[in-house]
Amino acid sequence: MLLEFIALFFTINNNNFHRSKFISSANEITGGLYEKTTQISNYFNLKSQNEELILENKNLKNLLEKYTSKEDSTVRVSVIDTINYQQKYTYTEAKIYSNNFNNPNNFILLNKGKNHGINIEMAVVNSKGIIGITEDVSANYVRVQSILNSNSKINAKLKNSSHFGTLIWDGKDYNIVQLEDIPRQAAIKVGDTIITGGKSTIFPAGILIGTIQKINTESSNNSLDIKLFNDMSNIDNVYIVTALDKEEIRTLNNTINE
Length: 258
Fold this sequence. Notes:
Blueprint: H1 2-14, H2 16-44, H3 46-68, E1 89-99, E2 105-110, E3 123-126, E4 129-137, E5 142-149, E6 154-158, E7 164-168, E8 176-182, E9 193-196, E10 208-216, E11 222-228, E12 237-243, H4 246-257
Antiparallel strand pairs: 1-2, 1-12, 2-5, 3-4, 3-12, 4-5, 6-7, 6-9, 7-8, 8-11, 9-10, 10-11
Helix pairs in contact: 1-2
């Protein structure tokens, strides 16, 4: 074995063709090992990388909200000011600790609470659409009433028109919710997109919900089956939306009602 190794060494060292083949093969083997090592390392780093992306996405959402809330979009300043830019919403990232979706009244537990500025009646969304509304909050946790809850009622509208209705859940399929009280004169078809209507103090307007899967015409107003963009059985990271003008709007509404 020693003599064979010495013979191989001299052959590779003194012959350009054999040396180039050896280097090429060594690089191929080394490169393959590094690739596998990198893949394994990346796999175990996915959690931290995902958390970094969520934080970055939250910051971008808040930054976008500051710029798009300005009434005069032609004005640009170097200092972002929540008063001058009339910012209406802020976003806080959160992680789901438990998620129910098979019961008539389902709830979700998140890892943020009063210590993080979270209160009741805040919207919960992710990149694909709406998730629910915060219902009960402790110091470090908050319980969310899922959209898959028989008590859930959310203002929603057709993306391509101003017709709106109430989003509910009949408790049958966790992928399908219902949009009630859409006027018969509304131009609707299967496949149309449904979004939040923005007529409440909780959800911003334009948050995705799903698409029309079926139109039920038995009632006086159309009832629509909506296929959710979210797979509610497979959600992990979300954003809690703080409506900055909520109390001001409610105070004014109460004054008007009185």
